[in-house]
User: Fold these one by one.
Assistant:
Number 1:
Amino acid sequence: MFHLNNPAAQGMVAATLFGLLVLATPSWAASGDQTAQATPAAEKEHHGRKPRAERVEDRIKTLHDKLGITPQQEPQFGAVAQVMRDNAAATDAAIQKRHENTATMTAVEDLKAYQQIADTHSQGLQKLIPAFETLYASLSDEQKKTADDLFGHPHGGRHHHGKRQAKNKE
């Protein structure tokens, strides 16, 4: 295992993990099979589970519940939830566009379509981070710890030996 001592690198890793949690991890969500048709009926039929929009709503509710959002925090949380919805819609559109053209794409066009999906994901993170930062600033210390645990290591526990683990031992 490697250690990140550079705060900028730690921030990049945290943002990446947050994006994966919100948009891609199986326990929270979005399909890893981006070749599937993105229409709700076809997605449910293909994956045997809820359409992406429903899964995003489930993630929003779970996040709201696990963080224990207070009435005073609702406006900040609402902004995060809306960005999550918008990001899911944009990702669906990019996936659908790729799917509609798969039969006639060259290998280069296919790679470019995947790049567009990745770019959409990156743009979504650029929108999500400021909204989440505003929410995070409004959280209590206990809520921040919960958020750190949820987004730092979505599958439980801290596995690095950075500042947070050392701080927790004090």
Number 2:
Amino acid sequence: MNRRKLLCFMSAIATLAIVGHYTAKPLWAQIRAALVENVDEPGRNPYISQAYFSCSGSRDCVVQFAQVPAGKRLVITNVIGNIFVQPPGVVSLLDLGTGPYTSSMDVPTFAQAGPGFGGMNIFGVDAHILAFGEPGSTPVMEAIGTAPFDTSGFGSSLTISGYLVSLP
């Protein structure tokens, strides 16, 4: 009888070992997958570039931002800022260009306040967009107003932000 209990015990252990062998593989595969990093994750390679401009006395103003590094593609996700225009003028066009071979994109503006600082009209920019810049390109914004831009010295500012993605 003692021998029979021993055989049952050994067969139970062998069965557990076989079941454990087949069920443990997915567990190890899941652990290995968790160790892989996404190097192009937006938080790993942030991009932000701010430009101040006045374009005093002009109705057309072109603003340049930081150049896209070699080997990277820029993904622009946001444009924010303030533009000062002489009264009674408005910003009739704000256009984002990301390079010589890409099309431009209109960016919406909104009237923020009537005559404010130095008697200037203030127009705000707060746009969530999706635009791309190729390696070595320089993003530019062109602003066109119905009246000349700031001549009081306050200066307008625009900021573009997003992230960089490595090219293969």
